[in-house]
């Protein structure tokens, strides 16, 4: 049991170190994947499109860097900016979403990449605290498992 807990502890420790060391690569990879999701965006039930819509609605953002990122997509030529970018769903017509100058007043202008990364960075202290607490419990479990193993081994020859 102590060996299993030690293995899990080491895996979590390595994952934390790798995540910290490669955090810039993770950001770059996220940005390129978000750009790909915008490029391939459609209104069918595609997981990537749903993720883009969810991010835009939740964080009140639009596009990767800003709302004008949508102008370079195939979706924009057909339907304009997606409705998930609208500040108010009632005050957002399809004609407004096809005209970038009108859309600027109706949609969120901030890009999602900065908002996602800043939200993640602001929550990292909470995640680190929880991970540290779990690691402490794992270490206590490892120590207690070793003590129990030692106690069982020592008392093995005293039983009559």
From TrEMBL:
<feature type="signal peptide">
    <location>
        <begin position="1"/>
        <end position="19"/>
    </location>
</feature>
<keyword id="KW-0732">Signal</keyword>
<dbReference type="GO" id="GO:0005886">
    <property type="term" value="C:plasma membrane"/>
</dbReference>
<dbReference type="Pfam" id="PF00335">
    <property type="entry name" value="Tetraspanin"/>
</dbReference>
<feature type="transmembrane region" description="Helical">
    <location>
        <begin position="126"/>
        <end position="152"/>
    </location>
</feature>
<keyword id="KW-1133">Transmembrane helix</keyword>
<dbReference type="InterPro" id="IPR018499">
    <property type="entry name" value="Tetraspanin/Peripherin"/>
</dbReference>
<protein>
    <recommendedName>
        <fullName>Tetraspanin-7</fullName>
    </recommendedName>
</protein>
<dbReference type="InterPro" id="IPR008952">
    <property type="entry name" value="Tetraspanin_EC2_sf"/>
</dbReference>
<keyword id="KW-0812">Transmembrane</keyword>
<keyword id="KW-0325">Glycoprotein</keyword>
<dbReference type="InterPro" id="IPR048232">
    <property type="entry name" value="TSN6/7_LEL"/>
</dbReference>
<comment type="function">
    <text>May be involved in cell proliferation and cell motility.</text>
</comment>
<keyword id="KW-0472">Membrane</keyword>
